[in-house]
Amino acid sequence: MDFITKLLAATIAMGTSLTFATIGEIYTEKTGVLNLGMEGTMLIGALSAFATAYNTGNLYLALVVAMLTGGLLSLIHAFLCVTMRANQVVSGLAITMFGTGLANFLGQRLGPVANGRNLVGVNLATKFDNIAIPGLHDIPILGAFFDVSVLTYILYLIIPFAWYFMYKTKHGLAIRAVGESPRTAAAMGLSVPRIRYLYTIIGGMFAGIGGACLSLSFTPSWNEGMTGGKGWIVIALVIFSTWNPGKAVLGTLVFGGITSLQFSLQAAGFKMVIPTQFLGFAPYLITFFTLSVLTIANQKRKGAFASPAALGTPFAIDDK
Amino acid sequence: MRFVIEKRDNKSKAMAFAVPVVSFIVSLLLGAIVLAASKVNPFEAYGAMINGAFGTARRFQYTIVESIPLLMCGLGVGIAFRLKFWNIGAEGQYIWGAIGITWVMQFWKFLPVTMLLPVGLVVGMALGAVWAGVPGFLKAQWSVDETLTTLMLNYVAIGFAEYLYFNIWKAPLGNMGTPEFPQAAWLPSIWGKVHSGLYIALALVVILWFMLYKTRWGFELNMIGKNPKAARYQGVSIKRNIVLAMLISGAICGLAGSMNTAAIAHRLTKGVDGGYGFTGIIIAWMAGLNPFASIIVAVVMAALTTGAGQLQIAMKLPESMGAVLQGLVLIPLLAGSIFTEHKLKLIKKEAI
Predict the structure, then answer these.
(1) A317 has pLDDT over 70
(2) Could you say which of A20, A164, A237, B49 would form a disulfide bridge with A210 (CB–CB 3.0 to 4.6 Å)?
(3) Where are the beta strands (DSSP E) in B14-173?
(4) CA–CA dist A99, A37 (Å, integer)
(5) Across residues A68-91, what is the average pLDDT?
(6) In the predicted structure, residue A272 carries a pLDDT above the cut 70
(7) ipTM of this predicted complex?
(8) Looking at beta carbons, which residues of chain A come within 8 Å of B92?
(9) Which residues fall within 8 angstroms of residue B317, CB to CB, at 6 or more apart?
(10) Both ends of chain A: CA-CA distance in Å?
């Protein structure tokens, strides 16, 4: 029982970062923009949040700065893909390359003089600690959901809102229209470029928070490349949750659970039946099969599952 | 008065030349701003990078060695890109090439030592081809999104390779990965650090250029990419060509992996996921899918990596500056790419 509670707590802690970024990327992709720059954007978020928290001691300011830097990096992607109609795959990879390089570079520039201006190895005076809700956190197993950081409590509010906004408001309808059929959306009087810009930037802000969750709460520190591929798991999670912000939680619990399981089993001294590396790549393999099976099933039963139809394609009103 | 972007009737040849040149100049300026902001003289920094990449025979050799796998991955994915098939799985296909040659070197003891290298390269190619062929088939048969499937499979390959070199294929002694390949089966050197893989890569450039520009098959690939409807009317099989292009694409990336492993690490070990596959995508795109242009682009991207090492030594700048500059080379080029097929038009007054 104790083992399961600990596993769940670790899953939630890691899942918080993943879910923020996944919700962001879902909104971006729903408008038809594929942002493969998540890994670099999360890393920039992690770095800028940590540097701000270290130099000012203000965690909430750090969150705001992470949102700004994540949003700025995604603004470049939006400019290239929407205004300049550049190739989204190449642009996303460029953003990851640039963001990763810049974060690692700044990490050696924004630290204390005593440490050679390096942020690696310095500690924060404060971090986002877990807050237990009296009574609720005593519930067996599920109590783990009520002994989490402020970031996770904020996420609890964001998840239902993100689902409601996408499926029950006219803004959500506009997003989906732009991603499914930009031509129709434009004919309806919607500005396709404006909506794509807006949600690409918002997606980047969420990725920035996702990164900040890592450096301010999950493992409060800065390390070069500390996202360690989480940005790619996010791309997988978006598919796994079939572009539905409500289902993103389910995905993160499964994926975060698999990843935490590696560490928990090792820590508990279990003799590993499944090699740790297999647990490491399981999320990607599961996503590969999910995508393939659902696409094939969809060919027979229309409408059950589909990626946004215009995903990855630039839009111009004059194109024929 | 406002500007609009309008489609050109034909691709502009002048722009195809001017855009990369202007973009590169813009990149240098942007880079100079970043360098100046970090309190470094940009001229000195660029000088140090050029010196670091080409300054001595040995540095020049490192730059060439670094550019070989980049060039090959670029060539590999470029074939699929002609069909507008987004193979971003080069990284995984490269790794399967490395796994393939390690399998042969370590376990195919029945082969004479002289045969290990050629057989290993072929097995590496075959595994790379299979790893690329699966998403190719899924796309051709059921239109499963290839960008996402190939991307996911990269991380399966990375994890599986780690399982091999840290577990079941691990050398009994040390923690370096699999046992070292027999020395007689290494890819021979031709000039210091430069290995004979250079010949293979350059031969591939010529072969692919011929196949893509001078044969009917190359013409078919182009037609499918540009106008699939027209291709279908001409009786070109799109499904067959997608699978075929992906098999070749994966085979070349697999060869890059097996070749590089036989030339440098001589074993499957940590760092096999060096990102050549991802940079290869960027190289193919920057070169406009042209095999000869890929050579120049691969050398430039390799030089940014090797030159960054010198930035660290001579200018005390973090090596990650190399990645920043690589990103800065790409961003203006991505922004400028629109002008080969579009033009800016000034509209003086809206006529309604």
Answers:
(1) no
(2) A20
(3) none
(4) 8
(5) 94
(6) no
(7) 0.89
(8) none
(9) A105, B35, B38, B40, B45, B311
(10) 61
- What is the CB-side half-sphere exposure of residue B223 using CA atoms within 13 A? 17
Q: Is the pLDDT confidence value at B12 over 80? A: no
The Cα–Cα gap between A302 and A68 comes to 40
Residue type, B299: V
**pLDDT tens across A13-40, in order?**
889 999 999 999 999 999 999 999 999 9
Residue B108 CA to its chain's centroid (Å): 30
Q: Is B330 on the interface with A (CB under 8 A)?
A: yes
pLDDT tens sequence across B127-174: 999 999 999 999 999 888 888 899 999 999 999 999 999 888 988 887
A295, two tokens: 């696409």
What does the DSSP 8-state code read for residue A191?
A: -
**Candidate ranges A83-87, B257-261, B268-272, B309-313; pick with highest mean pLDDT:** B257-261
Radius of gyration from C-alpha coordinates of chain B: 22
Tell me the residue length of chain A. 320
Cross-chain residue pair B323–A236, CB shorter than 8 Å: no
Residues of B in contact with A312 (CB under 8 A): 86, 147
Using the beta-carbon criterion (under 8 Å), do B147 and A312 form an inter-chain contact?
A: yes
Q: Determine what percent of chain A is predicted with pLDDT higher than 70.
A: 94
What is the C-alpha separation between A211 and A226, in angstroms, rounded? Answer: 9
Residue-level pLDDT at B1: 62
Bridge partners of residue B194, in order along the sequence: B191
Q: Which two tokens stand for residue B155?
A: 């991380």
- DSSP H helical segments within chain A, as ranges? 2-30, 38-56, 59-78, 88-107, 150-168, 170-180, 182-187, 192-213, 230-240, 248-267, 276-300
What sign does the dihedral A201-B90-B210-B65 (CA atoms) show?
positive
**Mean pLDDT, chain A, whole residue set:** 89
Question: Chain A window 285-304: which residues touch B at a Cβ cutoff of 8 Å?
Answer: 285, 287-288, 291-292, 295-296, 299
**Host H or E run for residue B344:** strand B342-347
* Domain residue limits, chain A: 2-300
CATH label, A2-300, candidates 1.20.1740, 1.20.120, 1.10.760, 1.10.3470 = 1.10.3470
The pLDDT score that the predictor gives to residue A192 is 93
Contact between A81 and B332 under an 8 Å Cβ cutoff? The reply is no
Q: Which residues of A touch B166 (CB under 8 A)?
A: 277
Gap between the Cα atoms of A101 and A116, Å rounded: 19
Per-residue pLDDT at B21 exceeds 80: yes
**Residue type at B210?**
F
The residue among B119, B62, B130 whose CA lies nearest residue B95 is B130
Q: What is the pLDDT of residue A151?
A: 93
Which tokens sit at B279? 């940079």
Q: Tell me which residue in A93, A101, A235 faces B320 most closely, judged by beta carbons.
A: A101
DSSP A118: -
Cβ distance B156 to A299 less than 8 Å, yes or no, reads no
Q: What is the pLDDT of residue A320?
A: 41
Distance CA B38, CA A109 (A): 8
Joined together, the tokens standing for residue B233 give: 């009317």
In the predicted model, is pLDDT for residue A298 greater than 80? no
Work out the average pLDDT over B13-39: 87
CA Rg, chain A, in Å? 20
